[in-house]
Specification:
Length: about 150
């Protein structure tokens, strides 16, 4: 089951789900739009203010302003916002495991001409899935490689 905007707010009010840096404007009917905090193009030093120009044919990563804390019964799915896809930015995201906590690092590729990426712009939508039951092992017990991550984490 996908959590609606109402379900997301109820889970946050009950303390089961946490989104530090939450902006009500980013809440969608079936998810939450994540905001760019930092960007690194081709592995260069991350930039955390202003606008970054990403050349065509370039890989880049962004970290999210939001710091999330998922409960054991909720997993997340990430989708690039169509605004970026229409500009030629492609990305393949994974699931956010139950029990994950941290900022998210999202990898993308600019396929077309240079594109300007403003810090503070929304980049991806996070959709929340209520699992049929709590997981046997949460993220930190399974691998936990990025648990507690802050900023761009490669």
């Amino acid at each position: 089951m996908i959590l609606s905007d109402k379900d997301i707010l109820e889970n946050m009010e009950d303390g089961r789900l946490e989104i530090k840096g939450f902006d009500p404007e980013n809440l969608t009917p079936n998810g939450y739009d994540l905001t760019i905090a930092e960007i690194s193009v081709r592995g260069e030093e991350p930039v955390s203010e202003g606008v970054v120009t990403v050349p065509g044919g370039s890989w880049f990563v962004v970290s999210t302003e939001e710091y999330v804390d998922f409960p054991p019964e909720v997993a997340g799915e990430l989708w690039i916002r169509t605004t970026w896809a229409r500009k030629g930015v492609l990305s393949s995201f994974g699931m956010i495991d139950a029990g994950f906590e941290g900022n998210l690092t999202l990898s993308a590729y600019n396929t077309h001409q240079e594109v300007e990426v403003p810090i503070g712009e929304t980049f991806a939508q996070m959709v929340f899935h209520l699992m049929s039951g709590g997981s046997e092992k949460q993220y930190d017990e399974h691998s936990g490689n990025y648990q507690g991550s802050e900023g761009i984490t490669l």
